[in-house]
Inverse folding.
């Protein structure tokens, strides 16, 4: 199966360009090639500006299949990074160019990815190029506080201290919940199951035995009717539109999350899981 990766850079303090790499995105190949062959702003801008690609060989030659990269914008740096995390969740690895060097990330949860990117930007980014001082202050506030919203829920601990004893993340506010890595992993399971089932059904309509068979065909045969463009522009939009949350998977995800943290909420957690997973269909690739 392909090792997927996103390669991104800031073009200004509120804009990120993202290119998708489909094959061999692991650090030993793609990471090493980026560090060896793309070493200045012009080279990186040309690389990402060319759009999505299937593969980069050892000499830095790129097999593009989409002419334009994905561009995300937000004046709020925190929101911008979470939008970046949404775009990156379906990848295995991500690579950031900060104007001077490459940073490598193993994609796991949104919260962890945002924290790691934020830390690298805070300490390593060249602020004279494209990070204004007021944005740097926002970063510092985000990293040190991680609390920007008004709390609107109450959390009741059934067994005080059990969270810290087992080295789990504390949850005592809505902010904590939304920054919790297990929370996003659970929602990701609900989303991925819904999208995988939808994609499987759609692949069978195209005459394939499974979604994986369709996916491999689309990326291994760029000159045929079922190709990269068909997957991105025809297949994915329909799969996302047809996706439905599996209520059994939803119930299990909520139940296991509550059991793991041994807490109850004064909110409808199932509704939140459902809404978050459904809203995240658009990030699934």
């Amino acid at each position: 199966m392909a090792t997927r990766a996103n390669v991104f850079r800031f073009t200004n303090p509120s804009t990120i360009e993202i290119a998708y790499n489909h094959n061999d995105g692991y650090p030993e190949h793609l990471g090493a090639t980026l560090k060896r062959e793309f070493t200045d702003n012009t080279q990186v801008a040309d690389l990402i500006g060319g759009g999505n690609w299937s593969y980069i060989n050892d000499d830095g030659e790129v097999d593009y299949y989409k002419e334009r990269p994905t561009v995300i914008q937000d004046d709020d740096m925190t929101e911008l990074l979470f939008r970046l995390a949404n775009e990156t969740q379906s990848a295995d690895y991500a690579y950031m160019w900060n104007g001077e060097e490459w940073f490598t990330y193993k994609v796991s949860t949104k919260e962890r990815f945002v924290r790691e990117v934020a830390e690298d930007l805070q300490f390593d980014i060249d602020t004279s190029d494209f990070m204004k001082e007021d944005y740097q202050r926002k970063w510092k506030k985000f990293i040190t506080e991680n609390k920007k919203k008004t709390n609107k829920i109450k959390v009741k601990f059934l067994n005080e201290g059990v969270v810290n004893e087992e080295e789990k993340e504390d949850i005592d506010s809505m902010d904590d919940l939304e920054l919790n890595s297990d929370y996003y992993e659970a929602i990701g399971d609900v989303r991925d199951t819904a999208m995988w089932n939808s994609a499987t059904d759609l692949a069978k309509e195209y005459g394939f035995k499974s979604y994986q068979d369709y996916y491999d065909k689309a990326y291994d045969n760029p000159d045929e009717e079922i190709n990269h463009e068909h997957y991105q522009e025809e297949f994915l939009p329909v799969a996302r539109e047809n996706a439905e949350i599996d209520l059994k998977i939803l119930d299990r995800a909520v139940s296991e999350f509550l059991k793991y943290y041994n807490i109850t909420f004064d909110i409808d957690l199932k509704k939140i899981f459902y809404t978050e997973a459904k809203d995240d269909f658009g990030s699934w690739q």
About this structure: The chain is about 50% helix and 15% strand. Residues 81 and 117 are 8 Å apart (CA to CA).
